[in-house]
Amino acid sequence: MAGIINNQLRTVRIGFMPLTDCASLVMAAECGFDRQYGIRIVLSRETSWANVRDKMTSGALDAAHVLYGLMYGVQLGIGCQQQAMAVLMNLSRNGQAVTLSRTLAEQGALDGPSLAQHLRDLPRSATFAHTFPTGNHAMLLYYWLAAHGIDPLRQARALTLPPAQMVGSLRAGMIDGFCAGEPWGQRAIDEDVGVTAVTSQQIWPDHPGKVLGTTAAFAASEPGTCRAMIAALLDAARWIEASSANKERTATVLAGSAYLNTGRETIAARLMGQYDNGAGERWTDQRPLSFHGDGEVNFPYLSDGMWFMTQHQRWGLLRGEPDYLAQAQAVNRIDLYKGAAEMTGTQLPASNMRGSTLIDGVRWDGSDPRGYAGSFAIRQ
Questions:
Q1: Are residues 253 and 310 in the same domain?
Q2: Structural contact between residues 89 and 230, judged by C-beta atoms closer than 8 angstroms
Q3: What does the pLDDT profile of the chain (380 residues) look like in tens digits?
Q4: CATH number of the domain that 191 lies in?
């Protein structure tokens, strides 16, 4: 436990982006899970991932709901001053999507294969937006495009936009598609400006999502506070998934002006696993956005962090080859997570690594990151 000094809770300032996958942070603060561990979470709503990064690394925030890939970008000094970072836990898995414009859909581009065919006939390059150059959405978007024979950096134009600007940019014709977290994929469908071409769980089943991140310096100076934050979020995540009623309440809270400030139903549908691709297909997803999964969601697997580095290497974002395992062991603070897991009775996996087969049929398990990064036909 972080401890209560002079009968005062330790205040921790945590940044978040207004996305559905910030839910465990919001509900930890709203339901008082934080106070059970001697801390008081004060949430700070941010406007861009660059803003989250800068406030976290400067110390204006103690921690943040942050893109996994962004954390490794800062750790490796990609596009910014290098700084040692700490991933404390995974906050979510699955639940992102690639959205294509209604115009493309009406021209027959509804999925990867049809988009690839359509782009061969376009007189111009298509423009696709993601949320941060080293982030999850950029890497998942590039992976999906390349899996269908589209070079994302040579046959298309990549643009970085804050999530909240995606739908407006699609409506204005500034972009042809985007990859972002919810509720923006659903919002594009609600406003009839886009269709869901692929979910992120179709690209990488049970992929990691946002993480609870902080600097290595904060983790070193306040390990008890870090364990308390993890424990509070584990409890909140478990509560969200305990019942449909809890998910419904979560959607209602998230819709408020302090958080996502959008229609409740736009959030609730995909939070409950109910999908509509905007082109006539509806389904109940077997791998929807998830926050706990008996702890399976939250463990900071070394192989997850390593995957993002392999993609940074693949797309030319790194000058040299990193020591994949050593970097992951430094960033992913499994020691702190295990302490919080013990405090909350959360089950631990048998291994610090895990495997999965992605959309192109290639298996990733962390055993040969160098070979994996160099194995792709489409790469920088």
A1: yes
A2: yes
A3: 454 444 589 999 999 999 999 999 999 999 999 999 999 999 999 999 999 999 999 999 999 999 999 999 999 999 999 999 999 999 999 999 999 999 999 999 999 999 999 998 876 789 999 999 999 999 999 999 999 999 999 999 999 999 999 999 999 999 999 999 999 999 999 999 999 999 999 999 999 999 999 999 999 999 999 999 999 999 999 999 999 999 999 999 999 999 999 999 999 999 999 999 999 999 999 999 999 999 999 999 999 999 999 999 999 999 999 999 999 999 999 999 999 999 999 999 999 999 999 999 999 999 999 999 999 999 99
A4: 3.40.190.10
Examine the domain organization and report whether 118 and 192 are in the same domain. Answer: yes
With respect to residue 87, please indicate whether it lies within any of the assigned structural domains.
yes
Does the model's pTM come out above 0.90?
Answer: yes
Same domain, yes or no, for 151 and 195? yes
Give me the phi and psi of 35, to 5 degrees please. -65, -20
Distance CA 58, CA 60 (A): 6
Q: How many domains, the chain?
A: 2
* Nearest Cα residue to 64 out of 89, 39, 84, 83: 89
Give yes or no: residues 225 and 341 share one domain.
Answer: yes
Q: Which of 161, 184, 203 is the last residue of a domain?
A: 203
Residue 222 — φ and ψ, nearest 5°? Answer: -135, 60
